[in-house]
Every structure is written in structure tokens, then in C-alpha cells.
């Protein structure tokens, strides 16, 4: 794994954009497991997103994603989840490079083992994977995880 050049991270990583969106809580808009159109949630409880967000590609520079995770917090990534229905555990390392068709939250990483991996929170409920989480190898843009990466500040 390469060293993490902090100055390059500060210059290149995650350029702010504008937003004013509100997000409803998961308990008010639960996962249903059904295909269809999203419905406008009717909830008085919302979380506001700061008027900045980011969306960048880190292909070939996934170490910048690790820096962002360590210094800022979770990331959102558009991924190819085509083969995830059968995920039972372990680290996804192969056969996962079709079109981006799903969004997930990258909440952490583990560099201590032989294969470094992201810790990814999925939206398919706690019955999926490891209590709703899965692991994806770092450094290979596996499942296209580094191509479209976003971050938000929640207020």
C-alpha cells in the first residue's frame, strides 16, 4: 500500500458542490426489498445536509478515500451490486465490474490483514451479509467503488 500524501489529499480530494436537501430517517422510510419508484416521504423528522457535498472519482487513488474516511467520515459510493445477492461474508475481490446500479455507504476500512478492505454499509437490511455490511477489497476499484464517490456534511 502506498504512503498517503496528505497535501495531495487536501488539494485534490472532494471538491464542494451545492445542495440544500433534507433526508428522512431510516425508520420513517424503511427498506422494502421491492422494485419500484421512490415515494416522497412524509416525515417531520429530517436530517439536513449542509450546503456542500462532493462527487469525485478516485480510480487509481483509493488511498485518498482512506484519508477522507479517517479525517472526515463516511462516504457514499455508486457501485455494481449485481452479484451481491449471494454475499455471505468475506472480502469481495473478484467478478464485480459491470454497471453502477446501487449506492452504499463506506463507513470504514481495515488494513491489518493480508487483504485490505472497505467496510461497506448496504441498504438491504440486517439480514444481508454481516448484519447489513459487506467488505470490498481496497485498491482495485472493485465493484466500481472508486468511480463515483460522494461525501456530505449532516447538520
UniProtKB/TrEMBL annotation:
Q: Which InterPro entries match?
A: Papain-like_cys_pep_sf (IPR038765), Peptidase_C1A (IPR013128), Peptidase_C1A_C (IPR000668), Peptidase_C1A_papain-like (IPR039417)
**Signal peptide annotation:** none
Domain Peptidase C1A papain C-terminal intervals: 4-153
Q: Which Gene3D superfamilies match?
A: Cysteine proteinases
Which Pfam families would you find in this protein's record?
A: Peptidase_C1
Enumerate the SMART domains for this protein: Pept_C1
MF (Gene Ontology): cysteine-type peptidase activity
Q: Which residues form a coiled coil?
A: none
Q: Name one GO biological process term.
A: proteolysis
Give the UniProt family note: Belongs to the peptidase C1 family.
- In its UniProt entry, what is this protein called? Cathepsin O
